[in-house]
Amino acid sequence: MAERRSPAAAFAGRFEAASASGALKLAEIPFLAHVNVRVDPASQAAEEVGAALGVPLPTEPCTAARAGDLTVAWLGPDEWLVIGSEGFRSELLRKAVDGGQGSVVDVSAQRTTLLVAGPKARDLLSHGCAIDLHPSVFGPGGCAQTTLARTQVVLLPREDGYLVLVRSSFAAYLSEWLLDAATEYLR
Fold first, then answer.
1. Residue 173's closest CA among 148, 144, 146?
2. Are 127 and 176 found together in one domain?
3. Distance CA 31, CA 152 (A)
4. Would you state the pLDDT for residue 100?
5. Cβ(142)–Cβ(74) under 8 Å?
6. Is beta strand 111-117 parallel, antiparallel or unpaired with respect to 102-106?
7. Claim: this prediction has a pTM higher than 0.90
8. What does DSSP assign to residue 23?
9. In the chain, which stretches have pLDDT less than 70?
C-alpha cells in the first residue's frame, strides 16, 4: 500500500527553517476533515446539523463558530464548511439532512490547511491578499473566501495567526509564494 502524502509535505523542512526566526510560523496541518454542508438555514435539518456538531450553523456572513476541535465556517447563505480532525465522521450530519433536505459532502481530499502564525503573519498575508486583515475587522470568529497570491483560499483568523485552506492542486504554488514573501521577515 502506498504511503499517504499530504499536498505540501515537500515543504515541511523549508517551513520549519522559515519558522526558526520567530517572526513567523509556517506549517501544513495535513489531513484535516473538510465537509461541505448545504441546507436551508431556517429548516429543521439545519437545527439538527447544529445539534450534531454541538454548535449552531453560523448565519452571519463571513463568520465561523467553534465547538471543541470543530470549526464551522459560513461560505454562503445556505453553505458551510465543517473543519475537524482527521477522524471526524460526517454520518450524523448526513442523517440530519436525510430525506433530501440538504447535502453533506466530504471534500477533505480537495484541500489542505496551511498555518501562517507569528508576529508577522498578518504582514505576510497582506502582501498577497486584498482584504483588510486587521484584527479589529477580521479577527477570530471570522471567515473569508478570498484570493491569496491569485489563489482561491478560505481564511480563518485565530488568536495566534491564520488557517489558510487551499485546494490541493495549488498547495505547492502557495507554499512557494509564502516562503518567498516571508524572506524579508527572516533576516
1. 148
2. yes
3. 19
4. 75
5. no
6. unpaired
7. yes
8. S
9. 1
Residues 116 and 174 in one domain: yes
Amino acid of residue 62? C
- SS3 assignment for the chain: CCCCCCCCHHHHHHHHHHHCCCCCEEEEECCCEEEEEEECCCCHHHHHHHHHHCCCCCCCCCEEEEECCEEEEEEECCEEEEEECCCCCCHHHHHHCCCCCEEEEECHHHEEEEEEECCCHHHHHHCCECCCCCCCCCCCCECEEEEECCEEEEEEEECCEEEEEEEHHHHHHHHHHHHHHHHHHCC
Residue 40's identity, in one-letter code, is D
101 SS3 class: coil
The whole-number pLDDT of residue 98 equals: 85
What domain range is 156 assigned to?
Answer: 9-28+111-182
Pairing of strands 33-39, 25-29: unpaired
* Structure confidence at residue 139 (pLDDT): 96
Look at residue 151 and tell me if it is in a domain.
yes
Whether residue 61 is found in the same domain as residue 121: no
Structural domains counted in the chain: 2
Cell numbers standing for residue 123: 504582514
H/E segment holding residue 178: helix 171-182
**Cell, residue 83:** 473543519
Residue 1 lies in a domain: no
